[in-house]
Amino acid sequence: MASNPNCPFEFLQQLAHDDDSQVRTGVAKNPSFAAAPECQESIITENLIALAEENIPSNRRLFALRSPHCPIKVLERCATSIDFLERRAVAENPNTPTEVLQTMITTDADRVVRQYAQTNLDSRSTSQK
Q: How many CB atoms lie within 10 A of CB 16?
């Protein structure tokens, strides 16, 4: 139903919030839904928040943290993850707040994470000149 091109748009919007990931995937592939980028962005953000709020580090959460659409509150929360790969993803994300990057540079136990945070911060200084 979700991938049916004749499915009413209002119904697609409801299906986009379904608990079943296959239903959400069908909605995302539906040509009618693809024509409405403002709806896609909302759904993407909701899914990223859900992934990033999982309690256990995972590849799915890592993917969410690398997304430029990842909400700032999620980046802030995961900057202290037990998983260094997740912290590195936060350090690399162009939307990570400057204050978070500065904290990571001075307090993160992993030198690679600190270096990614410093590189991200330096690139901001360079682009502002």
A: 22
